[in-house]
Amino acid sequence: MAAAALPWACFHASTPGSVAGTGGTGATTSSSQSSSSTGAPGSGGSTPACANVFPGTPCNTCIAAHCCSQVDACNADTQCVGCFLGQAADPSLCSKGATATTVAALTACAVQGCATTCTSTRPTCNPVTNVGCEAGSLCSADSDSNGNLTYDCYAPPPANDIALCGVCNADAGCVPGTTCFLVDNVGQCARFCCGDGDCGDGGACDSTQGLFGVGLCITTDTIDAGDSGIELPACAAPPIAPSGGSCLMGFDGG
After folding, report:
1. CA atoms of 39 and 47, how far apart (whole Å)
2. Within 13 A of 62's CA, how many CA atoms are on the CB side?
3. Residues 27/20, Cβ–Cβ less than 8 Å
């Protein structure tokens, strides 16, 4: 079982200007798969199935309105929804067979019809260094007004004072430079990073667990174990990242 960031810090690699399906910055989670429908929203008296596949954020609503048939086709594929959201249990399946074709069709439609709505707001802070946030606040992932993930400041409460690898939850925030990462349903504070040098002995920077070029420090044992391993935060990461957060894209504040 792989670890994952908690819902308020749901990570997947992305770049500025990416839309849903190309970096996980648009549709951020899915409902259980619903029955397929080829109707477009507004074409009949009932709500089409495509309107219920993703949560009702402005980005997702746009995708359902412009790409209803593609959303339904994706929902009918057992792997496509996870691949489109950047949440696939086995990412290697996303580039194979019918799943790859279905994801590509939905992504192309979303880019054409919803690029503006589904483009993430630029980060307001640097999660590696916490630059851009006031003292006591934490720079971590957040949803912008269109439901797309970006980096923003979280002011207390709760206090952001849980140290690296400590247990965190909605009532106990992590210290700046880290974020709450779910390990077997228990939150642990993990270090934001730009490279392995930010992660200390036995740690590696996993860029697939971040946004705008930023990653999270996990143990190298996790990488060696592959998909069958449980991702664990690297607990020897230095308190100040040597990289200075230089990998963050889209932020002009240092």
Report:
1. 9
2. 22
3. yes
Rounded to an integer, what is the distance from CA 119 to the centroid of its chain?
14
Q: How many CA atoms lie within 13 A of 105 on its CB side?
A: 18
Task: Let me know: does 194 contact 215? Beta carbons within 8 Å.
Answer: yes
pLDDT, block means (10 residues), the chain with 254 residues = 35 32 34 36 63 87 95 95 83 91 96 90 95 94 85 93 95 94 89 97 90 91 55 92 95 74
Where are the domains positioned within the chain? Answer: 1-16+121-254, 18-114
So what's the pLDDT on residue 55? 78
Q: How far apart are CA 178 and CA 138, in angstroms?
A: 8
Q: Which residues contact 143 (CB under 8 A, 6 or more apart)?
A: 28, 57, 149, 150
Cis preceding linkage at 157, omega within 30 = yes
Q: Does this model's pTM top 0.90?
A: no
The confidence score (pLDDT) of residue 91 equals: 78
Q: Based on the number of CB atoms within 10 Å of its own CB, is 207 exposed (0-12), middle (13-18) or buried (19 or more)?
A: middle
Q: What one-character-per-residue DSSP string does 135-150 give? A: TT-EEEEEE-TTS-EE
